[in-house]
From TrEMBL:
Its EC number is 1.1.1.304. Gene3D superfamilies: NAD(P)-binding Rossmann-like Domain. One of its GO terms (biological process) is fatty acid biosynthetic process. Belongs to the short-chain dehydrogenases/reductases (SDR) family. The lineage of its organism: Bacteria, Pseudomonadati, Pseudomonadota, Alphaproteobacteria, Rhodobacterales. PROSITE patterns: ADH_SHORT (PS00061). It holds the Pfam family adh_short_C2. It comes from the Bacteria. One of its GO terms (molecular function) is diacetyl reductase ((S)-acetoin forming) (NAD+) activity. Keywords: Oxidoreductase. This is Diacetyl reductase [(S)-acetoin forming].
């Protein structure tokens, strides 16, 4: 692998203050990219950016971004352009989950998850594509990268709305690839399984609270035992290599694809 295969790429990452987003930002910067960390918690994102800027000539900025608003998505794209002249890649990583059994889902639960996981991705994709189209076609494709989930392949009764939202992400990936191809933009995504991040740690607690699991950590144990071919949970660094591949020239001839990084869960 070329250690600088992302040299000169200006990359926006949403939800980049922690978890997979933060790991992707650090990985991309180490491979030569300029990275903009967009997060609703700007202070946390700035801390990650400061660490990147202090290591081996990394280049990172942080912006506050509520991904559920069009204006904030547009402002995040604008920040990349103002800092580095153009945007080459956008990774839509922001997401959340709040488990409910099917008959316990209410409007607030539905709207919260669908707004952050699906509606926000649509807004971000549109605003990013708008800027990419304005920049004009290049000799290489612009890249939009979505973050899906095993939940679009494995319906789970305790996270019905999350599954629905990630089916939507899969549809946006496919439809975006078709709708943006004429503008020289590819759309691909990756779908993790169980990744030890703040999102999964909170989900683990929530599953105990609703009575689906008896103790914290049981969700991890049950999935590793019963569903995964690779008998361990994953960590953000297990995912960042695939994200970098999708951001790099190595994936220039791909579009409309969702790569599963799930330890073999989806083949069960």
């Amino acid at each position: 692998m070329d250690a600088k295969r992302l040299e000169g790429k200006n990359i926006l990452i949403t939800g980049a203050g922690r978890g997979m987003g933060a790991e992707n930002a650090a990985s991309f910067a180490a491979q030569g990219a300029n990275v903009c960390l967009a997060d609703i918690d700007r202070d946390t994102a700035q801390g990650v950016a400061d660490t990147i800027n202090g290591q081996n000539g990394g280049r990172a900025i942080a912006v506050k971004c509520d991904v559920t608003t069009r204006d904030d998505n547009a402002a995040a794209v604008k920040a990349v352009v103002e800092e580095w002249g153009m945007i080459n890649v956008a990774v839509f990583n922001a997401g959340l989950n709040k488990p409910r059994f099917f008959m316990d889902i209410d409007e607030d639960n539905w709207d919260l998850i669908m707004n952050v996981n699906t509606r926000a991705m649509w807004l971000g994709m549109q605003e990013t594509a708008r800027q990419m189209i304005a920049q004009g076609k290049q000799d290489y494709p612009y890249k939009i990268i979505t973050v899906g989930s095993i939940a679009s392949r494995k319906p789970l009764v305790d996270v019905t709305v999350y599954c629905t939202s990630k089916y939507g992400v899969l549809a946006l990936t496919h439809c975006g690839a078709i709708g943006l191809a004429e503008h020289g933009i590819t759309v691909n995504g990756y779908a993790p399984g169980v990744v030890v991040t703040p999102l999964w740690e909170q989900l683990d607690k929530d599953l105990v609270d609703i009575g689906f699991k008896q103790k914290e950590g049981q969700a991890y144990e049950d999935i590793v035992r019963d569903a995964l071919q690779i008998k361990r949970v994953s960590y953000p660094e297990d995912v960042s290599g695939t994200a970098a591949f999708l951001a790099s020239p190595d994936s220039d001839y791909m579009t409309g694809q969702m790569i599963h990084i799930d330890g073999g869960w989806c083949i069960q």
